[in-house]
Each structure stands twice: as structure tokens, then as C-alpha cells.
Amino acid sequence: MDFAGAYSPDNLKFLLDGLYITLIVAFVSIIFSFVIGCIIGVIRYSKVPVLSPVMFVLVELVRNLPLLLIIFFIRFALPEVGIKMGLITAAIVALTIFEAAMIAEIVRGGLTSVDKGQIEAARSSGLSNIQTLWHIVLPQGLRRMVPPLVSQFISLLKDTSLAVIISLPELMHNANIVIGHEYSYAIPTLLLVAVVYFLVNYLLSVLSRRLETKMV
């Protein structure tokens, strides 16, 4: 184990570059998957004719496919039909598709958990379906969605490491290169990567608990 060599300035900078790519891919994927997942979840909850069954099929299809397969498909299959993407874009698209399907189910479940009595009371008071959804269902459902949503975001952050398979220069990819240069760097490098992942995910967990407390 060569801690001094593994933690040389050049290696640390290289690993930080990988962390930067990991965070960028995760952040953009979280934003897009959250927006798309919310839209799909609301459509499914509202049982919109035609759209809701279509969304159900798409969500179930994506949820039951391995993320690695989706990454491979986006990166290697789509170019065969003329759709080419860079490494970062391909990773973001694959993660967004996969996570949006998961988030859609979280959103639908959160909305469905709201007491039907409150919905009926809102409707009887003259609120429209959209007004009831916006003022009654969403605020209460969102509180219940926070813990599973944050858990899903943490999973997304960790799932960025799967993009190593397409040589995305993220944290795990760069760690593998450092280890490849000198095998004695393996344990120090992997320990550092583990600490980094833990700290980032722990901070997300703390943030979610504070957000949940404020929303109660």
C-alpha cells in the first residue's frame, strides 16, 4: 500500500476531475429526471385518457431493465440509427430515463397516499380537479415523497459509476486509471473514493432530514 504515491498532487487532481464529472452528471440527471418523473407521475395519478396507459407501459418497461443495458443502448445502439451523443450526454440521458421512471412511481405513490376525504371536501367546496391537485394533493404528497426521493437521488449519484463501462471520465473511471498505473495504489485510492461517496451521500441525507423537518 503506497498512500504517499496514491495521494500525490497529480493523482488527487485527476480524482477531483473525475468527481467533478460525477457531480455534474448526477446534478443534471437529477434535475431532468425529477421534472420528467413528476410529469409522468401526475399523469398516471390523474388517469389521463390514453396518456396514462402509455406512461404505465413505458415506466414498467424502463423499471424492469438494467441500467447498464440502457447505458449501452444510448451509447452504442442509437448511433446506428443516426443519433450520436458525447459521453457525458449519453450518461445523462441514460440516467435520466432510468431515474425518471423510478421517480414517477414515487410521485404517483405520494399523491395516491393523500386522504381521499380531503380531495372530496375540496371538490365539494368548488375547487376544480387541477386546483385540488395543486392546493391540496401536491403539498401533502410532497412531504411524503421527500425521503424516497432523496434515497433515489443518492442511488442516482452512485449509479453514475456504472458509466465507467462507456469510459465516462467520472470518479470510478479515473480511480481505475490511477490503480492501473500502480497496483499498490489500489487500497488507498479505493478508500479515498469510498470516503468521497460517503460524504456526498451523507450530506444529501442530512439535507433531506432538514427539509423534511421544515415541511412538517
Automatic annotation (TrEMBL):
Subcellular location: Cell membrane
Claim: Glycoprotein is one of the keywords in the record: no
Entry's Gene Ontology molecular function annotations: transmembrane transporter activity
Protein topology in the membrane: Multi-pass membrane protein
Database matches in SUPFAM superfamilies: MetI-like
Keywords: Amino-acid transport, Cell membrane, Membrane, Transmembrane, Transmembrane helix, Transport
Domain ABC transmembrane type-1: residue ranges: 19-208
GO BP terms in the entry: amino acid transport
Transmembrane segments: 20-43, 50-74, 86-107, 183-204
Family named by the database record: Belongs to the binding-protein-dependent transport system permease family.
Protein name: Glutamine ABC transporter permease
Protein source organism: Paenibacillus donghaensis
